[in-house]
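Please check this protein record:
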Amino acid sequence: MIKDRNKNSAPQPPNNGFQKFLILLGLLVVILAFLGGISTAVLFMNRKKIFSEEQPPANPSPPQTVEPSLSSSSSPSVIPSPSTPISLPTPSFVTPSPLSETNPSNNNIVERQGLIIELQSCKKSVIDAANKRIVCQLSITSKQENVGVRLFANHSQNTRTRIVYDGNENNASLVNFGSYSNQYNVENNLTKDASLNASFTFDNVPSQVEKLDLLEIVLYLNSSYYRDYIKIDDFRNVLLSDSE
């Protein structure tokens, strides 16, 4: 009996299954702790970026609006002819395009931007023994559309009509255009293919002058395709005739 009791009280071998379970549990705890540490580090590094994206700007700028610009393609309008000089922008004359050159078959006909300007005559009349008056007659026609045209007598240094002879010049003292007349400038409507007569008067021209070296005309065209000044300096060596 004593021998059997000692045999039962001997130490039992450890339980291998329980030890494995503890080892796996420890590994799982280590892995979870490692993953948690990585997530915490990433969240800490990106916290400023996340917060800045979620917060709206402190002072949002108001939306900008674009003001509509005025179109320059509006139909031309004619201003009644003033009795005093008007204020106009400074002319910036450009070289005529090939479609707006002097008619080669007639030196008295010029085409500019759809306008046909024909010099009909320049006539002289005696004022006194030393001076005479010269009146140059023209015909103006619009070939493209109805337009507004302003002619200048002696409005300013850049907007005037003048004659040049023997190294001298005279500015126009009067301009007539259709039924309008003025000493500075005058504006009128031109209907397509319907000519209007115009004339420029030059006073105090020396009586010995029989030929003009140059007749230079400045006008302003107001149309849907062109709105600017035009200078016509193609009328050269114009012979003067006597008034009837």
User: Anything to note?
Assistant: Residues 22 and 215 are 117 Å apart (CA to CA). The chain is about 20% helix and 40% strand. Helices lie at 2-8, 16-45, 47-54. The first strand starts at residue 109 and ends at 112.
